[in-house]
Amino acid sequence: MAKIKFKERIVPDEGRHLVTLKGVKEIENRFYNPTEHGEGYKTQFEWTFEYDDKQGMEIRCFSTLSPTLYQGKKNKMLEIEEALLGKYLSAEEMKEIDDTDALIGMKCYITVVHKPTEDGQIGAKVVLFESVTKK
Predict the structure, then answer these.
(1) 88 has which bridge partners?
(2) Which residues contact 25 (CB under 8 A, 6 or more apart)?
(3) What is d(CA 60, CA 52) in angstroms, rounded to the nearest whole number?
(4) pLDDT in tens, 56-106
(5) Burial class (CB in 10 A: 0-12, 13-18, 19+), 38
């Protein structure tokens, strides 16, 4: 007989937290619309971080597959990489990082805010990534 296992939804804590990158995987972008987006938006990265002060509490963030700087604005992937590495990346350094596995286990600070979702629940969103040690 199959057993039903209830899993309580845990909302990651709001505020600034030290986290460790546990994993990165490429997933299908559920917001991809072929009439509005190019092929590059069909997939995205899912970044999984674990809170250092609460083992087992995780938060996920999503980004494009490529770090970019456009008109002075960094995309989320570039913000994450710079926070984990603790330094600003030049265009050449961005090209050199081609494997997210090298970032696994690195730490950074994240700032999380709570926002109500359309179905009335509370959603957690990472709004800022900061390095542990800025270089």
Answers:
(1) none
(2) 45, 46
(3) 14
(4) 889 999 998 888 877 778 899 999 999 999 999 988 998 888 889 999 999
(5) exposed
What's the number of CA atoms in the CB half-sphere (13 Å) around residue 2? 2
Q: For the whole prediction, is pTM greater than 0.70?
A: yes
Cβ partners under 8 Å of residue 78, min gap 6:
67, 68, 69, 89, 94
| 127 vs 16: CA distance, rounded Å | 10
Amino acid letter, residue 85: L
